Amino acid sequence: MLAVALIVAASTAGCGGSGGGTKAALTASPHTPRAGERPSRDRAEKLGTARARKLAAEADAVARQQRRLRANPLATHPWGVYQGPREPAWVAYEGASGSNRSVLAAIAKQPKAVWFTTHTSAGQIAGQARDYIARSQHGNPGALVQMALFNMRPWEGEACHRLPSASEQGSYRAWIRNLAGAIGSTPTAIILQPDGPFALCAPHHSHIPSDLIAYASRTLSALPHTSVYVEAGAADWPAAGAQGGATAAADLLIAGGVKYARGFALNGTHYSATSAEISRGAEINAVLEARGIGKKHFVINTAENGHPFVFGNYRGGDPDNATVCPSKSVSAAATCTTLGIPPTTDVANARWGLPATQARIARNWVDGYMWFGRPWLVRQAWPFSMSRAVQLVRSSPWF
Q: Is the pTM of this model over 0.90?
């Protein structure tokens, strides 16, 4: 429609518009036909047609750009699988034998976002990132690389009691710059700062942690083939009510530079149902749209929500280290963890059993179900647990 409108407008302009406009143009023309020269209507028509074609071509270019922006960047590349020492599940798989090796393949051979944390310095990050990219792409420069960045210091509980020092702020920015230089034109999906809602508890309501995350979002999103997803908690965090729900999540995203990013990430360390995360994403988008940011695409971690439950309702000791489900047939009321939907961009597939409304939202706004959680690690952090990993696979409804 845009191209047609431009052609009509261009043709009208090329023919001089209304009669009065044509007369004015002719009166003002400095050209006087020589003896024997015929005014060339054909020439005018050709000029009008050429202009119309140029405008139509420009409109087509704009439409192609809009389609590219709407297209899912995660679906345009094969997903690389990192195979190396940074992924404990891969190390365990390589060293395993017999039935354990067969079972572990369900984790080790999945594309996952390995975490880069404060254990890697600003001086080390570029080299380690290049090695990670090489071990993820296996010689295919078009393969998508996935990373989770967890380099804010302080973070989690400590972030509620002190702010980053000037030195820590400078180190964080240098870390991000060096990482960006290593990524370059590599197709990359980045989960930016899991457990994002800790930014909401910064002392004195300081924006320093969010400003640093926004710096990372802007710097990394400027790379030609990098898609950044700023982490915004989960469907149950910030919880509706006193914690502010989707409005609080949108607040932290806006402060964290989601306007620069492809979108946001959900459920990084929680166990909420995928359908609940889709609904939370839609709620966040409604707030972002009302605030003038516009709706954003999002990704959902499904590594540990194969038997979903609300984090605050966990009936064991430590919800960060939730008990693995004993079988595929536990009761719906049980609070236990197991592997969820395998990594995919086929987000509305009937196999996932989504309600119609959530399937429609997913089809339009969810870029992918990714594994950036790590339930096979003790407390989702360290070390790797063979018994947890094996039972996660055996109890999952998806394997």
A: no
Q: In whole angstroms, give the CA distance from residue 89 to residue 83.
A: 9
Q: Do both 356 and 231 map to the same domain? A: yes
Edge-to-edge strand list for the sheet holding 188-192: 114-117, 145-150, 188-192, 226-231, 263-266, 297-301, 366-370
How many domains does one find in the chain? 2
The 10s digit of each residue's pLDDT in 134-152 is 999 999 999 999 999 999 9
Please check whether residue 83 is in contact with residue 143, taking contact to mean a CB–CB distance below 8 angstroms: no
Q: What is the pLDDT of residue 48?
A: 67
Given a contact cutoff of 8 angstroms between Cβ atoms, the answer to whether 156 and 117 are in contact is no
Residue 361 placed within a domain: yes
Instruction: State yes or no: cis peptide before 238, omega within 30 of 0.
Output: yes
- Is 196 among the domain residues? yes
Q: Are residue 295 and residue 332 in the same domain, yes or no? A: yes
CB-CB contact of 82 with 112 (8 Å): yes
- Characterize 22-59 residue by residue with b for buried, 16 or more Cβ atoms within 10 angstroms of its Cβ, and e for exposed: eeeeeeeeeeeeeeeeeeeeeeeeeebeebbeebbeeb
332 DSSP 8-state letter: T
Kind and range of the H or E run holding 214 = helix 208-221
Nearest by Cα to 233 from 222, 241, 244: 244
Tell me what the pLDDT averaged over the chain comes to. 89
Query: Do residues 225 and 184 touch, judged by C-beta distance below 8 A?
Result: no
Best CA proximity match to 268, nearest among 119, 358, 149: 149
Q: Is residue 378 part of a domain?
A: yes
- Is 28 or 343 the better-scoring residue by pLDDT? 343
Residue with tokens 């430590």: 318
115, amino acid identity: W
Residue 262 lies in a domain: yes
Q: Note the residue count of the chain.
A: 399
The pair of three-digit structure tokens given for residue 141, joined into one six-digit string: 């420069």
Phi (first) and psi of residue 146, to 5 degrees: -120, 135
Domain check: are 47 and 95 in the same one?
A: no
pLDDT tens, residue by residue, 202-219: 999 999 999 999 999 999
Predicted confidence (pLDDT) at residue 55 exceeds the cutoff of 80 = no
Question: What is residue 41's predicted lDDT score, i.e. its pLDDT?
Answer: 53
163 and 199, same domain (yes or no): yes
